[in-house]
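ENTRY TYPE: protein
CONTENTS: sequence, C-alpha cells:
***
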Amino acid sequence: MDRRQNPARHRRAGRCGKGRLTELLKTSHTQTQTQTTRHNKMAHENDNKDSSKTPPPVVEHFSYEGAEPGETLVIFGAVHGNERCGPEALLRLKEELDSGARSLEAGKLIIVPVANPGAYAANTRFLERNLNRSFYPKPPQERKAYEDHLDDQLCALLDEADYLLDIHSYTAGGAPFVFMGCRDSAEKEFAQALGVEHFVWDWSNAFYDSRVEAKAAQGTTEYLRGRGGRGVTLECGQHEDPANAEVAYTAALRAMAHLGLIAPEAAPAAPENKTPHYAKMVTAILNTPMTAARPFRHFEAVQKGDLLAQSPDGKETVTAKADGFIILPNPNAVAGAEILYLAVAEEPFPSPQKTPRKTPQHGRSGN
C-alpha cells in the first residue's frame, strides 16, 4: 500500500491514544493472520507443495513525502515476528502522519510496520527462515520458504532508500544498542543520532568468518550498503520490556530529524553528556552443535583465553581470542543459529570528519 501525504506545515504531534493504538495493533495482527492462513492453505493445495507457485504474502508499506526534496528513509518493523516494539512504534507514527498531527518538511519516508506478516501473526521469530539472513531478491525457483516470498518486496523498497532504520528487540536483557556497519562516518553519525549509548559494528564480517555462505551473512542493512545506502539496526532492549516501543518511536523521530525530514525541534533531543561505547564483532559462535560454557550476560566482559563454548562431548571448544565482551547470548538458539558473539572495544572512524550532505534527491539512481 502506497500512501502519499500532502505537504503541509509542521504541527506539534499529539501522542496516539492508547486505546486507538491497541485497536491499530489488533487490526494489523488480524489482517496478517488472515493473510498468512490464506497463503499457507494455497501452498498446501499446490502440487508437490511447491511454494514458488503460491501467490506471495503482501507486505504493507506506507509512503509520505515532504514539500522539498531530500533523503529517502525506510523504517522496518517486525523483520522478526516476535519483536513487537517496531509495529507499535510505527503504527503510532503512521497515525500521526495520517491525521496531520505530524508532517514531513522534506524528503521521503517509507514505513513498514510488519515486514514479516506470517511470523508476526504467529508471534514467532520466523516461520521457515530467518528473514534477516540470506536477504536478497530470489528467482521463483529459489522461493521455497515462506520468508523467500518477502525478500523481493522488501528489497524493492530498499532500492529506493538512502537510509534504513531496522527496529528489533532481543532475548537477553540489557540496554538498547545499535548494530552499524563500517562503511563511512555518515552511517556512524546516523547511528549516533538515535540517542543510544552502545554501538556494535562489523557484524557481517564476524558472521561470515564462522564458515557460513557469504549470502547467509547478508541482512537488510548489508543489502542496502551493497546498493550504496546506509543502514543500522536498532535493538530496543529485551523483547518483553514495556519501554521498547517508546525507544523505537523516539529513535524513528530522531532519525527523521537527523536526515532533515522533520525539523530538529520536532524530535526529542538526544541525551547529553553520555559517553558512547563501541564494540567490534570478531567472533560468531554457532550451534553446530555448541553450547555456551556458562550463562553469559549481554555485554559481559571476558578475558583472552576464557572458555566461551564447547561441544556436547567437550572435545571441541571455543575460547576468547582477545579481551572483549559477550554480545547477544542466546541459550535457546536453534541448530545452526548464533549462541553468542564476541566483540572487542574498538571505535570505527574514531575522528570522523563531518560528511558533506549530497544534493538531495528522492532515492538513488544508477543502481
